[in-house]
Amino acid sequence: MKKLFVALVAFSVLYITGCKSDAGDPKAVLISFFDAMSKKDIPAARKLATADSKGMFDIMETGLKMTENTMDDKTKEQFDRNNMEIAEAKIDGDRATVNVKDKKNGNAVDFVLQKEGGSWKVAMDMNTLMEMGSDKMKEEGMTDEQMGELKAEMEKFKNMDPDSLKIMMEKSKEAMEKGMKMLDSINDKMKK
Are 169 and 63 spatial neighbours (Cβ–Cβ below 8 Å)? Predict the structure, then answer.
């Protein structure tokens, strides 16, 4: 009986450690996030992102609806792991960065992840995205004066209510659709 108990405990330990979740590895979480995004599986990607990222995901969903199928190949290619070199995570407390390099053009970006509820989550909130963009622009040689002007403009955008931005995007889509119908109508008349 004692041997059976020891065997069960040993098996349980091996099973639990073998079924370890990716939630403890920032790089694995980011890879899962990229996989979800390449499939345009926004609900799955949302689960892998911080709570503060909700507004950006609302905007992304609206954008995907606006472009419908026109962005399929571009979205898949953008998040295709075969086109990326993904470095190991650099962890600093409850924050981690994972450098991702595009194999085709050599551009690299440090993606930020944060611990939430004991799990690593991809930070896709406006502040983090602005920080990532600013770091990249500095790297590309943007001057301090240009950075100041850009930050001032980005602050206006950052303070915009995500719901208002979503409504504005939907109205833009409607206006573009009306414009396209008008152009089609004009083209049809010109062909006659």
Answer: yes
Longest dimension (CA), the chain: 92
Close Cβ partners of 25 (under 8 Å, ≥ 6 residues apart):
89, 120
> pLDDT of 126-137, one tens digit each?
888 878 777 777
Among all chains, which residue has been given the structure tokens 């991702």?
100
**Model confidence pLDDT, tens digit, residues 46-73:** 999 999 998 888 887 777 766 655 545 5
The answer for residues whose C-beta is within 8 angstroms of residue 28's C-beta and 6 or more apart is 22
CA atoms within 13 A on the CB side of 2: 0
Tokens 């990607």 map to which residue? 45
Tell which residue, 32, 63, 64, has the closest CA to residue 48: 32
Amino acid at 73: D
Task: State pTM to two decimals.
Answer: 0.63
